[in-house]
Amino acid sequence: MFVEMSKELAKEKGIRGGERVVVKSARGEVDAKAIVTDRFKPFKIAGQTVHQVGIPWHYGWVTPPDGGDSANLLTPTIGDANTMIPESKAFMVNVEKKGGK
Amino acid sequence: MEEKVMLVDVSKCTACRACQVACKQWNKLPALKTQQDGTHQNPPDLNWATWNLIRFTELPMKDGGMKWLFRRDACLHCTDPGCQRACPVPGCITKTAEGAVVIDQNLCIGCKMCVNSCPFEVPRINSETNKAYKCTLCWDRISRGLIPACAKACAMGTITFGNKDDMIGRAYARAKALGGDATVYGDKFVNGTHVMYVLPEKVRMYERMVANPSIPISLILWKDVLKPLSVLAIGATLVGTFFHYIIKGPKRPEEGGNEHG
User: Fold this and answer.
1) Burial label, A24 (beta-carbon count in 10 A; 0-12, 13-18, 19+)
2) How far is A18 from chain B (nearest CA, A)?
3) Which of A80, B131, B199, B250 is the 20 to 30 Å CA partner of B6?
4) Is A36's Cβ below 8 Å from some Cβ in B?
5) Beta-sheet pairing, B124-126 with B131-133
6) What is the ipTM, given to two decimal places?
7) Torsional sign, CA B63, A38, A89, B11
């Protein structure tokens, strides 16, 4: 499981590429490896800096055994009635270095 | 069978990696434990069980923008293969009529000369079996009229396969249509290769792409100069010894006994 983030956000949070971080939302949290990249850039929205991060769905619980949990732990618990696929894949999260700052 | 060329039109690649998976599936290659290297590239490098790898290169641009480049990295199947020149086992590395360069692991002795001699740094050793492995251009498929597994799996039309002259023509037409820095890579180096690229950006922008590949000069000096001269020298020594014996006869103790009286 990995989380991609901008260099600016990584600097702000003291995160280096490859470090273990925790991605937390109001619903739950997921461990992930940080990928710091130039492909994400902070937005300036209504005068505020807004950061975007990206996570894949998950790597499974069986293979590899240390793959990581599902992104669905973070998503709003509203989804398709049959599959529970979340209605939205965009939501607010916090990203912190594992073990606190 | 005519000479074939695989064309990799990098401008169409979306890095879906169906080609990487298809190669593993067709050749029954195992998945190896890997590690995250900060990009989407996986595994980080070619290895004995990964013969085809999509390399990701992130290039920040001066204007603050970003180029994310993908390219397929695998054996280029040279017309004049450095690996074949270097291999000490006759028949271990062979070239098929279509142009595929194939290593026979049954004959491979694991000397690693092919690894050192490849201008593109392609062959990889399995440290457990001590054998060299690389892409085979699916010679088992192409010799039966099929296209390589990666070409078959590619949904974008990035990897195409056909007769040499046809593909070279298409490559140049595509490079011209793309314009800008677009070039064709592969028809000029090492007497041409059977895997060619259409590169929309300059060669040096792609990770681990060799700008001026050539067979190492040490290999040429060894195989084309030193080896024939050495064989000649050994032969001349044997012939010389034979004639010396015939002309001068065997060495005898001094006549006349002038040493011990």
Assistant:
1) middle
2) 7
3) B131
4) yes
5) antiparallel
6) 0.80
7) positive
Residue B67 corresponds to which tokens in the numbers above? 């180029």
Helix (H, G, I), strand (E, B) or coil at B196: strand
Could you give the C-alpha distances from A69 to A28, A75, B148, B188, B209, in angstroms and in order? 11, 13, 36, 49, 36
Q: How far apart are CA B16 and CA B24, in angstroms?
A: 15
**What is the Cα–Cα distance from B170 to B191, expressed in whole angstroms?**
19
A97 token code pair = 């270095």
Decide: helix, strand or coil at residue B126: strand
In this structure, what DSSP letter does residue B222 have?
I
By DSSP bridging, strand A29-37 and strand A2-6 are parallel
Could you read off the pLDDT of B117-142 as tens digits, one per residue? 999 999 999 999 999 999 999 999 99
A39–B66 C-beta distance less than 8 A: yes
Tokens linked to B154: 């590619």
Distance between A27 CA and the closest CA of chain B, angstroms? 27
A35 touches chain B (CB under 8 A): yes
Question: Does the distance separating the beta carbons of B68 and A2 come in below 8 Å?
Answer: no
Residues of B in contact with A33 (CB under 8 A): 36
Which SS3 state, helix, strand or coil, does residue B69 take? strand
- pTM score: 0.84
Instruction: From B20, B83, B9, select the one nearest B51 (Cα to Cα).
Output: B20
**What's the rounded Cα separation, in Å, for the pair B28 and A84?**
36
